Amino acid sequence: MKNRLLRTILMATAFIMTVPALAWAEESAEAVVETAATVDTGDTAWVLASAALVMLMTLPGLALFYGGLARKKNVLSTIMYSFFAMVLISLQWSLWGYSLAFGPDVNHIIGNLDWVGLKSVGLVPNPDYSATIPHQAFMIFQMMFAVITPALISGAFAERMRFPAFMAFLLLWATFVYDPVAHWVWGVDGWLRNLGALDFAGGTVVHILSGVSGLVACLVLGKRKGFGNEPMIPHNLPFTVLGAALLWFGWFGFNAGSALGANGLAASAFVVTHLATAAAAFSWVVAEWIHHGKPTTLGAASGAVAGLVAITPASGFVEPLPAIIIGLVAGAVCYIAVGVVKAKLRYDDALDAFGVHGIGGTWGAIATGLFATTTVNELGADGLFYGNAGLLGKQFIAIGASWAMAIAGTFVILKVISIFIKLSATDEEQDTGLDFTQHGEDAYTDFVLSASPFGSASIPAVKTSSEVKPAL
Amino acid sequence: MTKIECILRPGKLENVKEAINQFGIHGMTVTQVIGCGLQKGRTEVYRGTEYSINLLPKIKMEMVVPDKDVEAIVKLVIENARTGEVGDGKIFTYKIDNAVRIRTGETGEIAI
Fold first, then answer.
1. Distance CA B75, CA B73 (A)
2. Residue from A308, A137, A109 nearest A193 by CA
3. Of A62, A158, A345, B51, whose CB has the highest number of CB atoms within 10 Å?
4. Mean pLDDT value across residues A155-180
5. Contact flag B44-A233 (C-beta cutoff 8 Å)
6. For the whole model, what pTM was predicted?
7. Which H/E stretch holds residue A10?
8. Containing structural domain, residue A168
9. Residue B45 forms contact with A (CB below 8 Å)
């Protein structure tokens, strides 16, 4: 009797659960009919694959790149910055970020809130941005850019920013710095887009913003304890090289994917991205070989990233040979920024977010004004070397606006956060390492000789005032 | 009984271990250590910033041997660890009071 009752309830429940699924199936069938006319399958496949490639750049690419550069005691906290950029910005972007960046324009400076929660962002293409792929494909591709940008900044304040402060910074920075500037450059009626400044895949929006914000953040937070006295050398260069290689790989999605279609422009962006990267890795290694006498692995990895950064804004507008020149200059200039200028000025940009992304991004934006040509992309413009000096001026306006927004926005946001919570880990916390003090973990546990799995009932834990503090 | 403690170049460990094994001493404890002495450190460069590394990696090999073998073993270690350059390492010898084999409780030279 009881059994039959149970079975009836189960069956009824199962039936009820299928009802929404059936309704949904009908709905999506309708949607497919509507969109079939305009969605291009090849374009959509390439953009979705590119979105996944750009995701790979942050996790695990950037996480490993930065994690290897950090010291042993801070590797997990460094990785966690990238991981939580993925976690929080994915949510922020779908809830309100995408609407602010790409939603209907308000006074040329920001999108409105019409697309909050991805309302009206459906499977039908939005011809303003991409006429041949579902609007959601464009949205998720752009989401990965919004994710990696604040993750890049974390290199500047790695090994010292407390995790709660980092989370607050992530959300505020994405909302008040990234989203508006993305709107200026890429949004319909954004003022830099209207001006005619060129940024194919995010040299200003992603790299200048992240690099310059990184510089501001490392100045506001102050130096790491022991900076200049203790050796602060990378704890695992193979991690860093692996991360750089994944960045290189993922960057094909970043740049060639920004063509938003499986077409000739994508192929051109793919080729110039690769050439500039190889050239920059080469010139960085040569520069340090001359300067310090040894060609280093870290130099090759860093140079490759510098080249990727520099070619980003130009990747949809330049031919192969100029791309090589852009790369050669990027490697040498970024090496000088990191290896010579930083040492002179003695600011503590822990993992060189500014030296690589700020400087490389700025050079890339200038180079776009020099080398762009409409033979590659008729929607672009000719640069200085193709007879149009006007573009270079527009590029400088875009660079200046991005620098200004990054400096002002980051400074104000950090000052506001510091009213409520502490930004930097204390000296004692930094001595112990952020892995333990922020996250309660240790990356390399081979030296933990004994531990009780059932709490410390039998073995009283040694408590020191500084070590066992909760993160908040 | 005497404890012989040798600080060696990491690359010389295999030679020394082999020679001592052939001599008939099979028990030793080997540790990776860092230290400094007459040998100056070395310079490493990361992204153009130089770091002088003062403490260099070495191998510490410890063994407790019968007194009669000490001289021969020290000679063996020197033969096998020497390059003639600064940084070849050191040998220290100490008198040992006693040794105990935990498994059987045996003491003295029989336990080593």
1. 5
2. A109
3. A62
4. 97
5. yes
6. 0.85
7. helix A2-35
8. 36-427
9. yes
Interface mutation target, options A230, A292, A446, chain B, most CBs of B under 10 Å: A292
Q: Does residue B84 sit at the A interface (CB-CB below 8 Å)?
A: no
CA atoms of A307 and A312, how far apart (whole Å): 9
Helix count and strand count (H, E) for chain A: 20, 2
Contacts of B26 (CB under 8 A, 6+ apart): none
Q: What share of chain B is helix, strand, coil (3-state, %, to 5)?
A: 30, 40, 30
ipTM above 0.90, yes or no: no
Q: What is the DSSP letter of A126?
A: B
Mean pLDDT computed over every residue of chain A? 90
Whichever domain contains B58, its CATH number is 3.30.70.120
Are residues B45 and A292, on separate chains, in Cβ contact within 8 Å?
yes
Closest CA to A259 of A49, A99, A103, A32: A49
CATH number, domain containing residue A198: 1.10.3430.10
Task: Tell me, yes or no, whether A20 lies in a domain.
Answer: no
B2-61 pLDDT, tens digit each:
999 999 999 999 999 999 999 999 899 999 999 988 887 888 889 888 888 888 999 999
Q: How many domains does chain B have?
A: 1
CB of B44 within 8 Å of a chain A CB? The answer is yes
CB-CB contact of A238 with A286 (8 Å): no
Confidence of residue A3 (pLDDT cuts 50, 70, 90): low
Q: Across the interface, do A292 and B48 touch by the CB < 8 Å criterion?
A: yes
Phi, psi of A226 (to 5 degrees): 90, 5
- Would residue A132 count as lying in a domain? yes
Structure confidence by residue, pLDDT tens digits, A202-215: 999 999 999 999 99
- B31 at the A interface (CB within 8 A)? no
Q: Kindly report the CA angle at B13 between B7 and B18, in degrees rounded to 5?
A: 125
Tell me, yes or no, if A288 comes closer than 8 A to chain B by beta carbon. Answer: yes
On the question of pLDDT at A6 being above 60, the answer is no
Residues A180, A111 contacting (CB under 8 angstroms): no
The residue range of the domain holding B7 is: 2-111
Query: Structurally, how many domains does chain A consist of?
Result: 1
Question: What distance in Å separates residue B49's CA from the closest CA in chain A?
Answer: 6
State which H helix or E strand residue A245 sits in: helix A237-256
Residue A15 lies inside a defined structural domain of this protein: no
Asked if residue A199 lies in contact with residue A139, where contact means CB atoms within 8 angstroms, the answer is no
Q: For chain B, how big is the Rg over CA atoms in Å? A: 17
Query: For A185-237, what is each residue's pLDDT tens digit?
Result: 999 999 999 999 999 999 999 999 999 999 999 999 999 999 988 889 999 99
